[in-house]
Known about the structure:
The chain has helices at 16-42, 98-112, 127-130, 143-147, 149-152, 164-167, 185-199, 216-230, 293-303, 356-370, 374-380, 401-408, 418-428, 450-478, 480-483, and strands spanning 2-3, 11-13, 54-55, 58-66, 85-90, 116-124, 178-179, 209-213, 239-242, 246-249, 273-277, 284-288, 310-319, 329-338, 381-389, 411-415, 432-440. By secondary structure, it is α/β, with parallel strands linked by helices. It folds into 2 domains: 2-193, AMP nucleoside phosphorylase, N-terminal domain (amp nucleosidase, domain 1); 200-488, Nucleoside phosphorylase domain (Rossmann fold).
Amino acid sequence: MISLPPFIAPASYHSADEALAQVRHLYDTACSHLRDALVAYIHGPAEPDGPLTRVRAFYPFVRLHVPVGRHPDTRLSYGFVTQGGTYETTLTDPHLFGKYYREQFRLLLENHGVTLEVGTSHEPIPLPFSLGEHDHFEGGMSQTQRLRLAEVFDLPNLNAMNDRIANGTYEPNPGEPAPLALFTAPRVDYSLHRLRHYTGTSPSHFQNFVLFTNYQFYIDEFIALGQQEMADPDSQYTRFVQPGNVITHRVGLPTPADEVPGVPPPRLPQMPAYHLVRADGSGISFVNIGVGPSNAKTITDHIAVLRPHAWIMVGHCAGLRNSQQLGDYVLAHGYVREDHVLDEELPMWIPIPALAEVQIALQLAVADVTALTGDELKRVLRTGTVATTDNRNWELLGGGVPQRRFSQSRAVALDMESATIAANGFRFRVPYGTLLCVSDKPLHGEIKLPGMANHFYRERVNQHLKIGIRAIERLREDGVDHLHSRKLRSFMEVAFQ
């Protein structure tokens, strides 16, 4: 016996708002069914015996039928399909993604002049993904109830949570619709849960522009900046969010009645996130990813489902040229990938190009903040290849092997995160860029001493952060229509951004 929510027949819509409303209705009905069933299960026999009633609910879907021979406006990089046929994707949490879904629906309706079909899919909602952030039920279950939970409810299925669409390896079976989005609903839900764990903040706080760093010093400056913005009644930002969902509202703004107070965590999460929030979601999220390509891949794998408009790496690097000085900036225009964490998803023979829109924004931001131009700007800002390695102690290889590789690749800087972040931006169609600051020169014997390091950090961290923020402001001012580029789209590209 299977318990299902009330059947709701698929329906067609000419309006993005109406289609979104139906998605919300289907999703809320499904999640309520699972939650009510879980409460009943917990309050049932502590030692259940015999067969149990199976409880299931399913994600909503949106489907599009496009006639052959229509040619949409392809000046945008998303919002259309290039060939006739049937396209479909499952959807999750329309309350979090409502604005995003509405925009994708609107573009599809305008570009193709057809209707959107919304209905219930055949993809089950795993029980953990149906629960709210503040729902905690496990403590009320007996050991037997926990062991038999999978007999009653669907649990996360790894086969439904993969990146085949984004990687370009997905092939629909004959008669199956082609994908509309890079990520299926279970894949999105998986990342939403991981984001809470790794960053210590709710995905709802993430903004459309993301900064990454590999040093806590930058975060300290960002916290000071966030508090400063909240004390300014004319600030463009409305709130500042820290790990534990601790929210500081801009002076003069009331605290929403339904806001759940955050609690500072006893210790920082693995990759803490901080958010300067704008009302339209175009603020800045700043994440300390720590050290290493594994962390860089992990966090970008998950943030990608939020479909940000851009992410930028601002951190420290080893300078590889004798002409560089500690504190100089490096703007990456190419990457050498020796990180090995993306070898399966993005083979090494795939080039990772620089994106003109982000490059220009970063270069102009350096000029804006430093007030330097011409030759004086060139003296502190070098454009070149950045190498990323997974070997923290590459200096110990000996034999001149690393030096030879760096010379052959024309590398001017080395770190452990930048190429990974850029490669995942390429893979997930998220515009990316890198601006690093030279903190040592190991090839030339310039290793930071304690006093040097303190002076260096005081001199450069604040300025570097201001440059990253100024670059995002420039990207925002230029408009996201110019930012999203068709050069990141594959032959058979999905319609959703």
